[in-house]
Amino acid sequence: MKIFVAGGNGFIGSVVVRMLLERGYQVRCLLRSTSNTTRLATLDYERVEGDVRDPAIMLAGMDGCQAIIHLACPSGWDHIDSPETQAVAIGGTRAVLDAARKLGNFRVVFVSSITAVGATDTPRILDETASYNLLSVKELTYSHGKHRAEMLCLQAVRTGLEVVIVNPAEVYGPNDIALVTAGNLVDFATSNPVLVCHGGTSIAYGEDVALGIVHALEKGRSGERYILGGPNLTLSELARLSLNILAKKARIVVLPNSLIRALTWGAKTMHIPLPYNPKVIPYATRYWFVDSRKAQRELDVRFRSARDTLAPTLAWLQQAGYIS
Q1: Long-range contact set of residues 91-94: C-beta below 8 Å, sequence gap at least 24
Q2: What is the pLDDT of residues 28-82, one digit of tens each?
Q3: Quick one: DSSP state of residue 38?
Q4: For 109, which DSSP code?
Q5: CA nearest to 256, candidates 201, 202, 200, 195
Q6: Which CATH superfamily is domain 2-172+203-229+290-304 in?
Q7: CB 115, CB 170: distance < 8 Å
């Protein structure tokens, strides 16, 4: 089989491409002319240049393939609430589904996010049946974009298209060159005191998530979503474990969410620089705790412990010179 991968140069996508090739698939990657392909440098894949939102590019690129894994979406904190994020998440998914429908007998794996599952103000675990409860929170642009893209996928399933949805948690691992999640660990390692708020997330190792995506291609049921997440940790637990792995001592201070939200709003309004990215706060001040037993059962994927997820990530950050 030949698999079309949109977003194959990314942190997760590059691991997915490698795994597909190791399993004997042929891979065609959609990339922009400006895409950083460092993580694909040693891999044998076919390149197609273009934008995932371009219907003609998607139809031509997917022609000759039997399935697509759609990971393309801006995910860095600097872009997470930009109009571009929603445009790519929704417009790109629409173009993928339209091309798959025209080609016929085509399988789609849409890589969403646990942020499309929902969140809670106090620690509570959600699964794939949770109703999305965040549309009133306008700052969560990335979350809304993924949710609306999922709605497009489910609508396509009702018209006969074969679509599987996966929802990765917060993914850690080596080669996070944009510091999308590893940046959190850098902050923990270089601060004293370490300031966190009341919130938390499920974390997962990149290799485990990539395997879940490949297994969703091979085993996932059309019309179903599968959460790909490991242990659920509060932010203070995440900071404490990171410091413990690094054998560093620092005081961890948990700030009230009302305070950190007010400070962030005030600083943004008055254009005062902050020691953190203010776009993180709407996500950090919520709990993204999830249950991945469905994926473990149906996709035959396991998620390593929090320590085994963070330790290799921290080791890579040390080797790369981000922390000492």
Answers
A1: 91/52, 91/53, 92/6, 92/51, 92/52, 92/53, 92/149, 93/149, 93/152, 93/153, 94/152
A2: 999 999 999 999 999 999 999 999 999 999 999 999 999 999 999 877 777 777 7
A3: G
A4: E
A5: 195
A6: NAD(P)-binding Rossmann-like Domain (3.40.50.720)
A7: no
109 contacts 147 by C-beta, under 8 angstroms: no
Half-sphere exposure of 18 (CA within 13 A, CB side): 17
Q: What is the pLDDT of residues 218-271, one digit of tens each?
A: 999 999 999 999 999 999 999 999 999 999 999 999 999 999 999 998 988 998
d(CA 319, CA 205): 18
* Contact predicate 238/181, CB 8 Å: no
At 323, which helix (H) or strand (E)?
Answer: none
The model's pTM is: 0.96
Who has greater pLDDT, 12 or 138? 12
Burial profile 173-186: b = 16 or more Cβ within 10 angstroms, e = fewer: bbebeebbbbbbbe
Q: Tell which residue, 118, 264, 100, 272, has the closest CA to residue 197.
A: 264
Query: Would you list the DSSP string of 216-282?
Result: HHHHPPTT-EEEE---EEEHHHHHHHHHHHHT----EEEE-HHHHHHHHHHHHHTT---SS-GGGHH
How crowded is residue 256: how many other Cβ atoms within 10 Å of its Cβ? 11
DSSP state of 167: E
| DSSP-assigned letter for residue 116 | G
Give dist(CA 6, CA 13) in Å, integer.
8
Two tokens, residue 196: 């966190």
